[in-house]
Amino acid sequence: MTTRPPKIGRDFLRPDAPAKAAGVEKYAVDHYGENLLWAGVRRAGVPHGLIRRVDAAAARSLPGVRAVLTGGDVPGTNRQGIVHKDQPVLCDAKVRYAGDPVALVLAADRETLRRALALIEVDIAPLPGVFTIDDALNHDAPRLHEDHPGGNALLQATIEAGDGAKALAECDVVVTETFTVPIQAHAFLETENGIARREEDGRIVIIVSTQAPFRDRWEVSHALGLPMDGIRVIAPYLGGGFGGKDGATVQCLLALAAMHADGRWVKMWWDREESFQAGYKRHAARLHYHLGAKADGTLHALHCRVYYDTGAYAHLGGEVMALGMEHAGGPYRIPHTRIEGWCLYTNNPVAGAMRGFGVMQVSFAFESMMDILAARLRLDPLEIRRKNALRVGDRNSAGVLMTSSTGIGACLDAIADHPLWKDRAVWKAAAGPNKRRGVGLAAVFNAMGYGRGLPDTAVAKLEITPTGRFVVYSGVADMGQGNATAFVQIAGAALNQEEGMIDLVQPDTDRTLPSGSAAASRTTYTYGNALIRACQDMRRRILGRASMLLLVDRLEDLGLLPGRVRHPATGREIPLAMLAATLTTPERFCVYQYLMPVVPDPPATGKAFKIGFPHLLFSYGCHLALVEADELTGETTVRDYLAVTEAGRILNPQTSVQQVQGAIAQGIGYALHEDLQVEGGIVQTDDLGKYIIPTALDLPDIRAVFAQAYEETGPFGMKGLGEVASNGPLPAIANALADAGAARIFRSPLTPERVLASLQQGPGM
Amino acid sequence: MTVQFNLNGRRIALDVDPDRRAVDILREELGLTGTKEGCGAGECGACTILVDGVNRLSCLMLAAQLSGREITTIEGLSREGGTHPLPEAFVKHGAVQCGFCTPGMILGAAALLQENPAPTRDEIRRGISGNLCRCTGYQKIVDAVAEAARAIQEGEPSS
């Protein structure tokens, strides 16, 4: 622990790391409670059907079974969902995917729970399934949600700028391709879980691994018909989230269980298979692109149609696709665009938020298209990107004027100057026998914040304790990304106090204030902005009291120093412990709500988006992958990797590098291996032996560097960087394989089978 | 049955069902929740413990297999108020993000350094390849293990 106040821009060690490394940090899953009951759900097991009968008699009569509940036992609406309330807590009539819950069991121990779940007889009359994008587009397909006016299209939307698709006719060259990406699983190590209890006063307390505790309270309230103030949600540090815990997983089920547990704690903990079958996923997608340019490589027109498989329920599907569409043209100036999207219900697992939130899918398409276009025009792939890179004053492909830090050009320049790029020909020529080497680029961006229509806000709460310590009450969860670290660093710097004087309270709807979800690369930006202003208020309050105690006329004559206030002119000081003891309780707290700015004059397009379009701020990145493919096996190895990121000012280099390296690790997994296979609505890759995430042997050392920038609206000039780097690896590696002489691959992941076939096919465009 | 073993340097005897999993006994009976469970199938390494100094997966072990063994969990890695170079190096090098893999990763690394006190980066990567981390991309973990190895070699805690 440092003994001086933290400095912005310097490495600041994570205050949460020592307890985590010692094994003493209590995650949600580490909470048990005396006289615990275990809860679990029986899932449909079939992807689409009508419930005829759920017979729980045998399960109920099993000794140790406390209760078995079905759809009819759910009070309230029995519907959850962030934007559309279409997802039952327990299915009452129809099941729409194999992971749909049909019965909830409370039992004295895990073994009894397992046996009781197996004893429940579920009779479901199967309905024909909708399993692919083409199935869902078929007008004769069975409808998942009969009352949804769009049929199986959860959302159909269009973004248009300039003259739209007809400008393709004005281009000297048009390239047309189709890309396909699979489902990705978050595969956080702490699976979905929580523990809940009804207190004596009737309130339900839930300790849960969640990215959105305040929204959870609203979800539970709505679904179960409970008053909002009758629910308390506590969000300890998460064992990973990546978007998969942004939305109700166990919350409503646990609250329902707690209503039947007579005041006992109830624990629900999905096992790995259940997490694969029932947890949220990244959308599979198909992307049709027409990209047109002038002969000199100036981008002129883009027309694309994107299809996202959103699974059985709306969840955040429409918003995910909207963000993908907003990024469909890449970080480039394209004056004429038409971007059409279909977000489709299927009987597959529910797709939702995952790091990159719709953008990883389109990044594969647009960055592959840039290389294809460069090859067609015989232009250097870096130069064509530099030529078209967005600058302040340009409009992006969604028609939004770039008014703030827009650093893609600086990222591209940094790649151009780097030895890995300059010396690439030498590196490629040094490939060993039966190896092919290639070097690939990807220029990417990622919006920050919720976008228009959904106020992106945080309420910081800061306390000075009667003993002169400070407490930051964080309202936004830390799933591992390190926003809690940033809050301690920001408060320490803003108050000029040592880290050891600052405590941090993790989100708790009773103690902290609503600050939105841990999502959208927004946590440090939004809460940090609120916190700085709360610190400024606190500083003024402390100096104000010191002025009374030290008889100093002007606040500017006083200095707030670590643990004390000083009057430099006379050398007199008062310790914060003494000063704080004179403050009344209301004086000891400062609360500030920050509201993120939005695009002031949104373009008149994308009218189908209810919320979240467009965005004002983006972070940028340019990635360079040095890749080696084995001509005999098709196995692809990433030998070296450089990522240049522009995310405003870097507050903490160490945690920023953590985010970039981690995002790239997930991106390399997505590029090379990860493919959640679903057959007939049933997840086949349902354990970590079948669903392969990268091990330490599968990843190179990753060079993460940052382009200097300053975002005027950001706390100390920062922008969020949790997601942007995840978008680069797939297109960079695909481009590297093409550079190595393989035929272009349009379907990911880039498995050995596909790479081998494309190596044998040889160079194409 | 009664199972007796040494846990973090302390002799204990427990009356447990012999086919309960070791991870459940550690977490639920003994309250040692530093041992995590990520998959229950021996694929992620989060439940790693040391059995007679060797890394083992406690989700695949039954209570009876603890009998007579010397068991070290993350809570026991730093004994008698001292510190172990591995956790310190993990903190210093930013090898901890969500931290859920960290206890198992540290114990896996401890077993590696026991066997190979001066591993190369590639040997570290191979040594920890049975422990999955979804947050870090492993690079800072490799940095941390390399520094802890140096600190152990030099016989002093990392600074």
Could you give a quick summary of the protein structure above?
The complex is a heterodimer of chains A (765) and B (159). Chain A has 765 residues and is an alpha+beta fold.
Number of strands of chain B: 5
Structural class computed from helices and strand pairing of chain A: alpha+beta
Q: What does the main sheet of chain B amount to?
A: 5 strands, mixed
C-alpha geometry of chain A = globular
Write down how many β-strands of chain A occur, each being a DSSP E stretch of 2 or more residues. 32
Which residue ranges of chain B are poorly predicted, with pLDDT under 50 across at least 5 consecutive positions? none
Number of helices, where a helix is a run of at least 4 consecutive DSSP H or I residues of chain A: 19
Approximate strand percentage of chain B: 5-15%
Task: Give the end-to-end Cα distance of chain A, rounded to a whole number of Å.
Answer: 54 Å
Number of domains of chain A: 3
Task: Classify the fold: give the CATH topology of the largest domain in chain A.
Answer: Aldehyde Oxidoreductase, domain 4
Approximate shape of chain B: globular
The CATH first-level class of the largest domain in chain B comes to: Alpha Beta
* Largest sheet, spatial ordering of strands of chain A: 3-7-1-15-12-13-14
Largest interface: A-B, 55 and 54 residues
**What's the total helix number of chain B?**
5
Low-confidence stretches of chain A: none
How far from one another are the termini of chain B?
Answer: 46 Å
- Assigned CATH architecture of the largest domain in chain B: Roll
